[in-house]
Design goal:
- By secondary structure, the protein is α+β, with helices and mostly antiparallel strands.
- It contains eleven helices and 13 strands.
- Strands 8-11-12-13 form a four-stranded antiparallel sheet, covered by helices on one side. It has a three-stranded antiparallel sheet with strand order 1-2-3, sandwiched between helices.
- Helix 6 packs across helix 8 and helix 8 packs antiparallel against helix 9.
């Protein structure tokens, strides 16, 4: 296998890189978008690449970057001691190209060129700019599916087809990925989906709540990595903060944004009520906010009405009651009776500072006038 780096698309002012790996016989390619080129990232990319291959090649050839080669003595590359145990873990030998010898790594350089041509937005390919890192990752997946599925001009066969034969020459993959380079472990808090690093809370995607993740610093950025389907994947990246200033991202909580409470049934009675529909959930939230008494009994009444008159009618009436602020006994039946004979939408009225639902005092304007008229001399 050969691998090299290419300049990836930019996300605003942030630079990205493309990991490009290439099996020399089948021409099968793996392209992974990353945000740094550190040792932990290389470990994660190697693991992901080997699992895409379905095995580990005997040799891995790459360029002489500082993460792989620290120096040359008598033209002998001195390997970076941090990358040696990674190769030993997977049972492969990491080699480097001869300096100033393009022929020794021409294959992978061509793979990088093709990947950059198709993935990086330019005036030539008219590819639009990316709005998120997830879009770049998706573009890489689509690119790999395309190039590995079409017939190669040299072999006259599709790389994915040839990979099936080349797998018999690859070594067996370890069951678990190499995690020693991924950093320290942290347990994600099961309730708020955060981790604590240096007395600061940082959020991670809610799907990892209660699980173990790995954290490391890359400059002033906190990199959080998780093992997903046996593969190390970067799930979050935060700027360093200080105690008392937690870093919480809304996109880590897509199902329940911060500040919004979503009813979650805890009993069979609550579940039966909320299954009526969104109107039931709205009614419960508004009734609870108003401090309504006897909510449980009113919920049971709504469930009974739903069995008799259908969930659609009851859910509609509950939604109307929530908007109008009507939570007293008999309100639900009254609204349903009205909606049964007046199917058109009606404007709801709700008591407030500018409007009251209490009847006016106009009816009191003639009070006492009849008695005065009875005593008038002309009317005796």
């Amino acid at each position: 296998m050969q691998w090299d780096w290419g300049e990836g698309p930019k996300l605003g002012d942030q630079r990205t890189s493309l990991w490009c790996a290439w099996l020399s016989w089948s021409r099968f390619r793996v392209v992974i978008a990353v945000q740094d080129k550190t040792i932990p990232t290389i470990a994660a990319c190697l693991d992901q690449t080997f699992r895409a291959f379905g095995g580990v090649p005997t040799y891995c050839l790459t360029d002489n970057e500082k993460t792989v080669t620290t120096t040359h003595i008598a033209k002998i590359a001195v390997r970076n001691p941090d990358i040696v145990p990674i190769g030993r873990f997977y049972g492969t030998v990491i080699r480097t190209c001869m300096p100033a010898d393009p022929a020794s790594k021409g294959g992978v350089e061509n793979a990088v060129k093709i990947a950059k041509r198709d993935l990086v937005p330019t005036a030539t390919n008219l590819r639009p700019a990316y709005n998120s890192f997830a879009e770049i990752e998706q573009a890489c997946d689509e690119f790999m599916a395309e190039v590995n599925g079409r017939v190669h001009r040299e072999t006259r066969r599709a790389p994915i087809e040839m990979l099936g034969e080349e797998r018999f020459r690859l070594h067996q993959l370890p069951e678990h990925p190499y995690t020693a380079a991924l950093g320290l472990t942290r347990q994600v808090h099961p309730k708020d989906s955060t981790i604590q690093v240096e007395q600061v809370r940082y959020s991670v995607p809610h799907s990892h709540a209660g699980r173990q993740v790995f954290i490391r610093w890359h400059g002033d950025q906190l990199v959080v990595t998780a093992i997903i389907d046996g593969v190390p994947v970067q799930i979050a990246r935060h700027q360093r903060s200080t105690p008392g200033n937690p870093v919480i991202l809304d996109e880590h909580y897509p199902d329940a944004p911060r500040g919004l409470r979503v009813p979650k049934p805890q009993t069979a009675a609550e579940e039966a009520f909320l299954q009526i529909g969104p109107g039931a959930a709205a009614w419960l939230e508004e009734a609870a906010a108003e401090g309504t008494r006897g909510i449980a009994s009113k919920m049971a009444e709504a469930v009974a009405l739903a069995k008799l008159r259908g969930t659609t009618a009851v859910d509609r009436a509950l939604g109307t009651a929530a908007m109008a602020g009507r939570f007293t006994d008999g309100d639900l039946r009254s609204i349903m009776d009205h909606q049964q004979f007046n199917d058109g939408p009606a404007e709801t009225s709700r008591a407030g500072e500018d409007h009251s639902l209490q009847p006016g005092t106009g009816g009191w304007s003639g009070f006492g006038r009849r008695a005065a008229d009875d005593t008038h001399p002309d009317l005796r």
